[in-house]
Amino acid sequence: MVICSYNREKYIADALNSLIAQDFDRSAFEVIVVDNNSRDNTQQVCEEIIRSNPEVSVRYLTETQQGSSFARNTGARHARGELLCFMDDDAMAEPGFLENIRRFHRAHPGVHGFGGRIIPRYIPSEPPWMSHFVSSLVGNFHYADDVTEFSANKYPLESNMVVSKKAFDEVGGFSTALPGVKGTLRIGGEGKDLYFRLKQRGYGVYYVPDMVVHHVVETDKLTPEYMYRVASGIGRGERLRITSGSFAFLKKLAEYLFKLGASFAIALFYVLKGQPKKAWPVIRFRIDVLKGFLGR
Predict the structure, then answer these.
(1) What is the C-alpha separation between 143 and 156, in angstroms, rounded?
(2) pLDDT tens digits along 86-95
(3) pLDDT tens for each residue of 95-117
(4) What single DSSP character describes residue 182?
């Protein structure tokens, strides 16, 4: 397990304890925390957990180059296992998480990339404006009820994803041109880029629904500025992946314009359904993605 962390002293203990508490052979997994320049007590929290659980291999590393792609690559370089499992520092694995990963891997040894379900844990509660069409921005993810190969344009999210170390090394790991969060700027799509490069090499990527984590969402932080940063980061990452003026660029632009138009229809649906608070965030999401893609 690789967990990159940045100022998560409030939740990193829950993340680590959810793995330590797994009913799983202690010698069969390791946890690597990569601190990406935290300024809080993340290090002290991790070191205390390491001291309190000597029977579990938990290591604490640092990565000074800012960005989750740098931190995840550092964790991967130090990992000793056959599989690289990535989880966020504010996520908690459900009981059976590690066993379900092992069960799937043993049943499908030729699969080198897969991921699971992410359930938001809203604190204190889900905001009234949140909807299915916006919740992906806070990590909500459920692709199918059964084990399924992802379609060509679908992929797992970074908070709950697995890739074999062999395949990870083969494609060169996460692209540091897509660092994730870097200061106040977000350039997203690092997980998508990794899995698309796997697919280009012929690797199938699968969804495993019983591989579940719960992801903390502090609703007081879901300001318009925060939502813009996340949504525009999606578009910004796509812009970096696609050459301007190319057919792929024009195709993606047309896709984003279509989705923007569709967002107005969805917003109208919520208004007619008597849930007007859900309407504008859907439109704003698509506008912000488009802005990021166009470099605005």
Answers:
(1) 9
(2) 999 999 999 9
(3) 999 999 999 999 999 999 999 99
(4) E
Does pTM surpass 0.85?
Answer: yes
The sign of the dihedral angle between the CA atoms of 265, 266, 267, 271 is positive
Amino acid at site 34: V
The total of other beta-carbon atoms located within 10 Å of residue 268's CB is: 12
CA–CA dist 195, 217 (Å, integer): 25
Whether the link from the prior residue into 124 is cis, omega within 30° of 0, is yes
Residue 139: φ, ψ to 5°: 95, 0
Give which of 16, 8, 7 is closest to 39, Cα–Cα: 7
Are residues 36 and 5 in contact, defined by beta-carbon separation less than 8 angstroms? yes
What is the rounded distance in angstroms from the CA atom of residue 208 to the CA atom of residue 167?
Answer: 18
DSSP 150: P
Which residue is it, tokens 């694995």? Answer: 93
